[in-house]
Amino acid sequence: MNRLFFQPHQAGLSKVQAAEHTLRNINPDVLFEVHNYNITTVENFQHFMDRISNGGLEEGKPIDLVLSCVDNFEARMAINTACNELGQTWMESGVSENAVSGHIQLIIPGESACFACAPPLVVAANIDEKTLKREGVCAASLPTTMGVVAGILVQNVLKFLLNFGTVSFYLGYNAMQDFFPTMSMKPNPQCDDRNCRKQQEEYKKKVVALPKQEAVQEEDKIIHEDNEWGIELVSEVSEEELKNSSGPVPELPEGITVAYTIPKKQEDSVPQVTVEDSGESLEDLMAKMKNM
To answer: Which GO BP terms, alphabetically (predicted)?
Structure first.
């Protein structure tokens, strides 16, 4: 974030303070609440959870959405733990250390995979991140990659809050190939976070309680069957030709269909020609041919 909004005159300010100053200058009508602390400590974590539960626009009401823009896995796991315990929807985002890829992820506790359901290797192996950082070496940084990922995140936020378009559960960005992979991940029933497993059970109960909707198959409506120009749509292939060009449909698992079938090979119906045996030898036949 420091590459996106820090300005020379803000030297010495923390990230959150500099962010507030910059954003307040852009839009002074927005309300900002700044807390400059480490959310992974016990005391600060409790205050962080309290602001999620009671820090909405109406004091005492929960917030609508948490956005994670942190730069380490420990803080991500703290946000994940808090949101799982509170059942709070949040969006996680990040840029890789080589600065040429990033991602965003929508996490709905119980419905989609949380950050602990499929953790990165560093988290799964319980490796201390600090041991991976080399002294005097800073991770690569490209404001362009960060700007793209930030834009994708905010676009997803708008679609989620304003209920339009398709909200992505996971959307990646590979700057080297301009590749945007997308997917949705189901929660892990054996997730290490007990609150995640609890939220999964609650979500299953909600799904069971929902009224079952019967699938109604609508008939295709014929559009413009009659027209004043007398135009008719006539198939160039007869029913017999269509039948002959299709083959048997193989037995497939439910939900899988074939785009086309291969017709059976028809044997060439060429009449067989037989020659009667005259009883003459080859020498006699050759002698006849010479006299002709």
So the answer is: protein ufmylation
Spatial separation of the C-alpha atoms in residues 261 and 133, rounded to whole Å = 58
Helix count and strand count (H, E) for the chain: 9, 5
Please choose, from the candidates 19, 13, 20, 23, the residue with its C-alpha nearest in 3D space to the C-alpha of residue 1.
19
Residue 240: its pLDDT value, please? 77
Q: Residues 71, 39: contact at Cβ < 8 Å?
A: no
3-state secondary structure of 101: strand
99: tokens are 């600065």
Q: How far apart are CA 94 and CA 117, in angstroms?
A: 17
The DSSP letter of residue 93 is E
Helix axes 42-54, 73-86, angle to 10 degrees: 50
Hey, how many other C-beta atoms are within 10 angstroms of the C-beta on 126? 7
The contacts of residue 127 (CB under 8 Å, 6+ apart) are 121
In contact, 37 and 44? CB cutoff 8 Å: yes
CB atoms inside a 10 Å sphere around CB 105: 24
pLDDT tens digits, 16-33: 999 999 999 999 999 999
115 in helix, strand or coil?
coil
* Residue 191 a catalytic site member: no
Pair 171, 159: CB distance under 8 Å: no
Contact 48, 40 (CB under 8 A): no
Nearest residue to 52 via CA among 69, 35, 27 = 35
* Cα-trace Rg, the chain: 35
Catalytic residue among 114, 138, 191, 196: 138
Q: Which amino acid is at 194?
A: R
- Report pLDDT digits (tens) over 58-73: 888 999 999 999 988 8
Q: Residue written as tokens 């009224």?
A: 211
Its pTM stands at 0.69
